[in-house]
Amino acid sequence: MKRRFFLAAAAPALLSACGAKHVWDSDEAVRAARFVSSEPPSITLFTVIGIPRGEGGHSALMINGSQRVIFDPAGSWNHPYIPERNDVLYGITDNFKNFYIDYHARETYWVAEDTVFVSREVADLAIRRAEAYGPVNQSFCAVATGRVLSGVPGFEASPTGFSPNKLRSWFLTLPGVRSKRHMDGDPANNHNVLLRQKDGTIFGYNR
């Protein structure tokens, strides 16, 4: 696979345990990290899918509104430059988006990135719903993702069960959805990803 380097002014990425862990970084940290993307407002569903059986491993949302955040329910990725409030990650620049994808894409999983463009008002409502949801228990990622979406105009029919694959199958029926597939050859334990992030350089994917 042809790959290119991305540079990031980044410190080590740290792993955290899955589960309903209360994290509440300061107002100052959240304000300082705020990132406003030049891309149109959108809601993106990330689905981590097993290789070779195709089982759903994780669901998360990237929401691009008045700022860009990731709602990573019961997720295991964090970074000292990324403030978090109960599974909502702030400051998602392009490099940190790539960090997030690269962390999940490995020999045993690939990452589906499915995006629907929405109005700024709809995107900001989705952000507020993610912020209000609270910390998520392990294995409830698809449940939480579906519940956040179900209160957003245009996404009311979102399933709220435990299957990331069923959630993705429904999301793909939405009008205008755009999809990308991210694959990688990193070892299943992600150790190489963490080392690359530590020295400020990561391998990215052709977009």
Give the topology.
Blueprint: E1 3-7, E2 14-15, H1 27-33, E3 42-50, E4 56-64, E5 68-71, E6 77-78, E7 84-85, E8 88-89, H2 94-104, E9 109-117, H3 120-133, H4 141-150, H5 164-171, E10 178-182, H6 191-198, E11 201-205
Antiparallel strand pairs: 1-11, 2-6, 3-4, 3-9, 4-5, 5-8, 7-8, 9-10
How would you describe this structure to a colleague?
This is Lipoprotein. The chain has 207 residues and is an alpha+beta fold. The chain has one domain. Helices cover 28% and strands 26% of the residues. The chain contains 6 helices and 11 strands. The chain has helices at residues 27-33, 94-104, 120-133, 141-150, 164-171, 191-198; strands at residues 3-7, 14-15, 42-50, 56-64, 68-71, 77-78, 84-85, 88-89, 109-117, 178-182, 201-205. The strands form 3 sheets. It has a 7-stranded antiparallel sheet, sandwiched between helices. Helix 3 (120-133) crosses helix 4 (141-150). The longest helix is centred in the middle third of the chain and has 14 residues, at 120-133. The two termini are 12 Å apart. Mean pLDDT is 86; it is low at 1-19 and 202-207.
